[in-house]
Amino acid sequence: MFRDGARGAWRQRGKQGGMAMATARALPASPNWYCSRCSDASSDGRFFGFAARSRVCLLDVSAAAPAFRGELIGHTERVSGFTFCHCPGQSSLCASSADDGSVRIWDAAELALVAEHSLHQNTISALHWSPLVKDLIISGDEKGVVVCYWHNRSDSQQFLPEPRTIFCLTCSPHHENLVAIGYKDGMVVVIDISRKKEVIHRLRGHDDEIHSLAWCPVPGEERLPAWQDELQVSSEEGKVPNGELKQDTATKKGCYLASGSKDQTIRIWSCTRGRSVTTLKLPPMKRRGGAVDPAVKERIWLTVHWPSGHSTEIVSSSFGGELLLWDLTQSGKRKWTLLGSSEGQNHSRIVFNLSSVTRQDKELLFSISMDRDVKCWDLSTLECSWTMPSLGGFVYSLAFSPVDTGCLAVGVGDSMIRVWNTLSMNNIYDVKTFWQSIKSKVTALAWHPAKEGCLAFGTDDGKVGIFDTFSSSTKNKPPQISSTYHKKTVYTLAWGPPTPPLFSGEGEQPSVTLYSCAGEGIVFQHNPWKLNGEANDINKIIQDTNSIKHKLPARTEISWKPDGKLLALGNEDGSIEIFQAPNLKLLCTIQQHHKLINAIRWHHEHGSQPELSYLIASGSINATIYVHNLKSVVESTSESPLTITEPFRTLAGHTAKITSLSWSPHHEGRLVSACYDGTAQVWDIMKEEPLYNYRGHHGRLLSVQWSPVDPDAVYTGADDFSVHKWHISKQEHTRPPHVSKDASSSANDYSSFGLPKPFVTQKAASVEKDPPKEKPTSDATLKKRKPRSILPLSTFMDHRSKDELHQDCLTLATCLKTKDNNEDMSPDLKDCIHLGLFADRASVHKMIDVEGKHHLENGHPELFQQLVLWKGDMKGVLQAAAERGELTDQLVAISPMVGYQAWVWTVEAFVKQLCFQEQYVKAASHLLSIHKVYEAVELLKVNHFYREAIVIAKARLRPEDPILKDLYTSWAALLEKDGHYSMAAKCYLGASSPYDAVKVLAKKGDVTSLKTAAELALISGEEELSATLSFRCAQDLLMSRNWVEAQEVLQRHKTLFGQRLVFCLNELLCKCLSERKPCNRKRPVPPCYHSWTVNRKASFFDMVVEVWQSVMGVDTTEKATCAKEQLRSIEHPPSTSNTRPKQVLFHLSHDLTLAALDYQTATWDEAVKSILGAVTRCYDAGNFFLMQEIRSIILPEGCDKLRHKLDSTNSQSMDACRSLEAFVVYGLLYELWWNLPKDSLALQKAGLDPVLCSSEQKALEKSDVSGQSSEETADQTAVEMDENLCSTTEVPKCETEGDSRISSVDLADRQSKLNGCKVLLSEEIAALQNTQRDIAEVQQILADMIRRHQQQRNNLQENTNGSTQESNMQQNSETESDKPCSDSTQMNCKHEVKEPITLPELTQQLLKAKQKLAEFPDNLKVFPFPDVLECCLVLLHIGSLCPPELHKQALDLLRKHGSSNIYEKAGRRFLT
After folding, report:
1. Is 629 helix (H, G, I), strand (E, B) or coil?
2. 1464 or 616: which leads in pLDDT
3. Phi and psi of 324, rounded to 5°?
4. Bridge partners for 660 per DSSP
């Protein structure tokens, strides 16, 4: 059951691999190394597959150039074997084995899993599909076990021919039961799998690893002239190692077998004789300026392949990547021919696998190598047909050259740069590789904007350099390397105009300089003319220009505006700063993201709308992309920098961090993003809509680039070691996949980092092993252990036998007598060292030396040091102990007896020893003993003992010493990185940097952190920052329905008084909405309202003003005017259908607050505009239900009273009132339609058109949108009409049954309301809206013409490249999509076919429409108005209840202005 379940799961994964079919081209992951068979070609010549990491990459090699087919995904570890089935009719079946112990069988055509088994208990090292048995796969592992698996019947057998490590195996193409196996020790074994454990031959001759085995494609063993000598020897012997054999069987039966070994030889074996018939030794090849010494076994992999059409020729690899064709018919030394005559055709490093296929009377050979190239050879010409490059690391960066169009640079984690000429016609994979002087992962790339072939790169180890890709490719010229290195990974490179000090205005200077941003948060400016000079830190210029004294945030991203006038810097805290060149004056700060910025991109400048060039897109660790419009910031005359907190557009949909962004150079407002969720997304910025989603990668996306020549092509790179080119129009998905967060992952998963789990039971185990305590015993019973003797040799000599001790006495007496005669007595004591104790000083010294040497040999250096100390050579003791790293506290304590300098030297040596032992605190204490306070502090700081370092610095140094501030800031940076924001804030406060303390405290972004940060900013005098943080905190509290605490946060700041009024009105509005439509659903957190006294009988504005006067103190006109000025300075972006309901309601509260203030101050002209803004915000957001509720609450009796209060001479206010009245009547019109009496509904049902008109759909969609959005976000927002406006009530459709309450409505009241709908039927407005629709329709036709032209050009280019089949499929799909699919659309299709429109005619139509639009009065264009034709259709649908004059007027307007297809279709049954 488990296997079946796993099979189904992996089939699903296999189908996911089919998504790569949407990939036009790809640079795949490089083949795996050191495998006996990890690549193979299908027998029909269609596919070539090779193992790449834990996947299998498939190439379509049926055409002249290779094409990326897809990947087989399912293994969890490195794939070690891959083989196709070569039986007839099964050419698409293949098998793979991996280090995870499984063997999987795949359908290469469908990229799907067929079967699998995990019978091996050890690592699989060899795999082959039997060429004669269509369902037999044979595999071998490192312990020598051979598994035969018949997948059709799920049967298996296991053998252990030899208990040795298997390196390779191959099945006989002539006998279905014979299998040859090569072992690590050089043994080759032929077994018969039909009879268990029977070894046919043991072939001995090689003395090292068997890398490859190949059977001769022709059966029989005919004697070749070159082998006569060896065969004659075997015939004279008359015996073979495995028994006797008749002479005639040698030629009629059996088959030759070739083997390649690490011992640099190829052997041809006779399977009938069981011995080698010839040996081929690899020739020494000249490489890299010298010959290979045959006696030296350098790195080599000797693979052999016996082509099917060449029975007397064998292809093998060689030492350095060359391929050799051996002619077995030739005699003598020179039997081989080198493949690839021209320079650069051969592989540059050793070759691992060879496989061939016959196609169209031509035999092709495929090879994979350590140089990461896949090559195809024509064996008839011995020339390389094509080369497919591959990648050996993460694809960190992609960059298109702005000068050499179509030249794509690829930065890879295998320490190499690839430059891909994507426009090459002869070779679609024309790739040059650059590796000189890189030596680390390439993480950033940037082409020079004007100089051809000038490519800047950055690496993982902080290196920045510049390649000349023209000269480097021919002369192997190394790049220029900047002398200034970053301390961490280079994130981004950018070319931009010079800034000070390079921008001086005098003398020669480069037009552009190179900027690099790296992981330590610093941006360097490099002079490309003098890379060996020191680079400049632009933070210094920023601080000098803007007079900034606080610490600048760590930089993570850099992007120059294409015109070089503005610089955007992304920061670690999520902010984006915009600077003006050349002095880098700070213009504004974007406070939108709250996590590290990963990508910033400016919109291009060559579009038809110049204002779009001020758009800047940004992505961070959060999954949301924000787009800001900086035009107003650039044109602002403000001297102080501005702060932006509202985005122009928000793009939500990704589920992981954004890694790269790229604007389309062919469209306006079109963006593609790369994300860690494994997909790339194309967005329409202006509509905030996701358009296309690419899911072809099987890993996290790291880079993306829109093709500069093909509007429909995008290139992406990922951590699956591949680059994909894909077409946007061919993607079936529109948005990223939704991924639920899995909280089950363990936080302490050490295995994911490749680390052993910490062994925490050690202490417990040692405690359990302690013996139980016993009662104390008397001292007499305890046997004291003697201390170790410091003179063990002397002590031992004095405990020998009596005779030997007597002899010692005689020897000593003789020595002392000699001493009396003034003779040297040491020679007499040569063998009696222990007697030196009783002799002179020299003898004692000699005894001490011998005893000390004995202590050292036995591992007791402390006793040796004590003896030398007794001897008086203290200096020698210290030096010897320091050299061995054996200094102790005792030696340091007694070192002053040698002298002051010796003591200082000893302490310093002991400090080094302690640092090596990682005892940094103790080392710092010893440094303090010799008065090296700064060194002690620096030692603790470098090793992150900041707390101890600060204590020492505070206690021993002056308070104003700068090292204290450095300690605090360094510790704060480390704490901030680890997420300990509160502790980091205390450090910044200790360093007298309250601004930084506020910033780091607010970094977490929760309510309590923001509240504390705001209070801290207020205490520190940063009132503006405190107000910003307080407002953010209040907004978060509002979302959790806690209005009480939100008001407490806001009331600390006078500048937020206007926002207090907004929050107050928002609370009263939500309370009112919840009372109108109570919700039965229980909420996790109940709302927290104020206990204000509210006059329920008064109007809503009177009720709000009363609360303001009694609670907020807004009792004078001056206070109300001041609050209005605060709120009018804040502009919220217009709402769209994608705006979240909680945001709509908050912005709506802002508009109504302005209206209430105007109501209080009796400025009615402004009040009507604010109310109109609130209503139209609901309308734009598609929240029809909320618009009705707001209309009922604010204007329960209509607009008559409000109109009478307006100044009739003020045309603008009257126009606004007319628009507001139209929206009010618009809502009443829909209520009347939805609540028709039953008899009217029956009439409607009898004659209703089965196809709903567009206006009905539009209105119903609006109601549905409001219902869905409120229901979806009910648990997230605090306001959203209290989650019940639309979740508990469905808007009735035309077909619903009217209830008793509706049916009782008086008919006369309906007629009066319908008569009020005359305001909607405006001739002028209808003409204006019709003109606007005409303009939009012409623009859409123009866009469609451009799209069709681009598709035709793409099809033409594909046909020239030979991809006729794919283009025909595309044309067929296009013609099918152009066919009319229903009767409802047939009329439109015919209309389009009969009247083709040319581009000049369209341009003329657009010009006329725009001229017509300009003729309309400006007052009609200022304020929005409901769709007049939509209202006409609703009135016509009401039927008999509609007054005749309104009915006639609606028909006239529909006839006159309903020329658009959508209205023709909707009004067809009324007009015919």
Report:
1. strand
2. 616
3. -115, 135
4. 674
Question: Prior bond to 131 cis, omega within 30?
Answer: no
Q: What burial class does residue 1441 get, using C-beta atoms within 10 Å of its C-beta: 0-12 exposed, 13-18 middle, 19+ buried?
A: middle
> Counting beta carbons within 10 angstroms of the beta carbon of residue 1141, is it exposed (0 to 12), middle (13 to 18) or buried (19 or more)?
buried
**Distance between CA atoms of 388 and 1041, rounded to whole angstroms?**
60
CA distance 52 to 390: 10
Mean pLDDT for 693-718 is 96
Q: Quick one: CA torsion of 1413, 1416, 1418, 1424, rounded to 10 degrees?
A: -70
Cα separation, 352 vs 850, whole angstroms? 61
- CA distances (Å), 1448 to each of 22, 1438, 1470, in order? 55, 13, 11
* Three-state secondary structure call for residue 690: strand
Conformational region of residue 442, where left means phi above 0, alpha means psi within -120 to 50, and beta covers everything else? beta
- Enter the tokens of residue 549: 């004294």
- Location of structure tokens 């030979």: 1362
The residue type of 974 is L
User: Closest Cα to residue 650, out of 682, 623, 622, 625?
Assistant: 625
Q: How far apart are CA 1167 and CA 566, in angstroms?
A: 40
Separation between Cα atoms, residue 365 and residue 313, nearest integer Å: 13
Residue 584: how many other CB atoms lie within 10 Å: 22
Residue with tokens 């303009």: 1335
DSSP per-residue string spanning 1406-1469: HHHHHHHHHHS-HHHHHS----HHHHHHHHHHHGGGS-HHHHHHHHHHHHHH--SHHHHHHTHH
Dihedral (Cα; 56, 415, 723, 475), 10-degree rounding: -110
Q: Which of 491, 409, 458, 445 is nearest to 708 (CA)?
A: 409
**CA–CA gap between residue 375 and residue 317 (Å, rounded):** 13
Dig out the tokens for 598 from the structure: 């990963």
Q: Are 1202 and 1164 a contacting pair, CB within 8 Å? A: yes
Whole-angstrom distance, CA of residue 416 vs CA of residue 406: 20
State how far the Cα of 505 lies from the Cα of 500, in Å rounded to an integer: 10
State the sign of the Cα–Cα–Cα–Cα dihedral 649, 652, 656, 662: negative
Token duo for residue 786: 């003697």
Mean per-residue pLDDT, 628-645: 91
CB contact burial 499-532 (16+ within 10 A = b; e otherwise): bbebbeeeeeebebbbbbbbbebbbbbbbbeebe
Q: Are the beta carbons of 1000 and 972 closer than 8 angstroms? A: yes
pLDDT at 808: 81
- CA dist., res. 841 & res. 1218, Å (int): 123
As to burial, measured by CB atoms within 10 angstroms (0-12 exposed, 13-18 middle, 19+ buried), residue 255 is buried
Q: How many CB atoms lie within 10 A of CB 916?
A: 10
Structure tokens, 1122: 């001041």
Q: At what angle do helices 1023-1039 and 994-1001 cross, to 10 degrees?
A: 10
By C-alpha distance, which of 1038, 1017, 1037 is closest to 1028?
1017
DSSP state of 978: H
DSSP letters for 454-493: EEEEEETTS-EEEEEHHHHHHH-PPPEE-SPPPSS-EEEE
**Mean pLDDT of the 341-361 span:** 87
Placement of tokens 């900034």 in the chain: 548
Taking alpha carbons only, the member of 88, 101, 203 closest to residue 145 is 101
The predicted-structure confidence for 556-566, as pLDDT tens digits, reads as follows 999 999 999 99
Q: In what order do the strands lie in the sheet with 362-369?
A: 351-359, 362-369, 373-378, 383-389
Rounded CA separation 148/178 (Å): 12
Kindly state the DSSP code that residue 1275 receives in the 8-state scheme.
T
pLDDT at 1381: 42
H and E: helices and strands count for the chain? 44, 57
Whether the model pTM is above 0.90 = no
- Distance, in Å, from the CA atom of 750 to the CA atom of 762, rounded to the nearest integer, reads 18
- What is the CB neighbour count within 10 angstroms for residue 941? 20
Q: What are phi and psi of 768, to 5 degrees?
A: -65, -25
